[in-house]
Design brief:
Layout lengths: L7 E5 L3 H12 L3 E5 L3 H4 L8 E2 L11 E4 L4 H9 L14 E4 L5 H13 L3 E4 L2 E2 L2 H5 L4 E5 L2 H12 L4 E6 L3 H29 L4 H10 L5 H12 L8 H18 L4 H15 L10 H8 L22
Parallel strand pairs: 1-2, 1-4, 2-3, 4-5, 5-6, 8-9
Antiparallel strand pairs: 7-8
Length: 315
């Protein structure tokens, strides 16, 4: 499936992430039709050339259909519910690509249902947020039949900077959950060392500039530095979502016999932050709770800081 002009793509779920990713496919020249439960969230894609449809079933004749919804019950509804993608006899997309963050068990159920209808299924969770997408730095993990992945690899590459086939069946879900657990652990560790440095008399800006220039710096630490320095917790990924992924990750760890003591401790910290009311801010707000435990009240340093995404013109 290498001809952009002849690949008919469907997209289910145009929230913040889904809208940004569908936009990239439209910009790449793909024929795309989109559905969202709240139609008004999908309608702006029409100005980019998308067709907006009234139900997932209207996408059943597409070559490839992407799904990006927020919970297992939503995934089941858009696939199997009334007007669902696989609800019409005799019509099913050839390939379904699901980028929702769901458990391996929920994914396996949808894979089985797709197979019953003659559709190939890839699990393709993503790493990034709308700013990362705009910078062209989104990455994807994919699992399912290798031949299916090979067929749509060019399509997946249009979404970001890289896609990795990680194995068969649902293993991409485990990769995504492991990634997000690491995200939480790194953010908590970053908060702890930043508070330590500041309590010892070093500004957050100076400490993080040093960290980011060292071998310990990363795309992620650079990206979170503006939030840490200027206390801007506009959400990219909220604490309840992070807590949910810790639960999924630790459930998988118990099933596989992996102890994960650092992740377990961090999960308790994240859970406590949610209970304390941190529900709508970005998960970088872990910094404030760490400072509070150290007897500190942080204030913004009001310092312009690069995020590492400036190549695409985004802070």
């Amino acid at each position: 499936m290498t001809n952009t002009a002849h690949t008919r793509v469907g997209w289910i779920g145009t929230g913040r992430m889904g809208f940004a990713l569908a936009s990239r496919l439209l910009d790449a020249g793909y024929d795309l039709a989109a559905f969202n439960r709240t139609r008004s969230k999908a309608e702006p894609l029409a100005s980019k050339g998308a067709t907006i449809v009234d139900s997932p079933a209207d996408l059943a004749d597409r070559d490839v259909v992407f799904i990006m919804v927020s919970a297992p019950q939503d995934l089941d509804e858009v696939v199997n519910g009334p007007g669902g993608l696989l609800s019409v006899d005799g019509h099913a997309p050839r390939i379904i690509i699901d980028s929702s963050t769901v458990s391996m068990a929920a994914s396996a159920q949808i894979r089985q249902r797709a197979a019953e209808r003659g559709s190939q299924f890839l699990a393709t969770p993503v790493s990034g947020n709308p700013a990362v997408i705009a910078a062209g730095k989104l990455t994807l993990a994919a699992s399912g039949p290798r031949e299916t992945f090979d067929e749509v690899e060019q399509l997946l590459n249009a979404l970001g900077s890289g896609v990795t086939w990680v194995g068969d069946d649902e293993v991409a879900r485990l990769v995504k959950i492991a990634h997000n657990v690491f995200l939480g652990v790194v953010t908590q560790a970053m908060a702890e060392i930043t508070v330590l440095a500041e309590k010892g008399g070093v500004s957050r800006h100076a400490f993080l500039e040093f960290l980011n220039d060292s071998v310990m710096g990363s795309t992620f630490t650079r990206y979170k530095t503006p939030a840490f320095v200027n206390l801007d917790f506009t959400p990219t990924f909220t604490m309840p979502l992070l807590s949910k992924d810790f639960t999924l990750g630790l459930d998988a760890a118990r099933e596989l016999g992996v102890t994960m003591p650092i992740a377990t401790a961090t999960a308790h910290i994240v859970s406590a932050a949610v209970a304390a009311g941190h529900r709508d801010e970005d998960f970088a707000v872990l910094l404030l709770d760490e400072a509070k435990r150290a007897g500190m009240t942080l204030v913004s340093e009001h310092t312009p800081v690069a995020s590492g995404l400036e190549v695409a013109g985004h802070e």
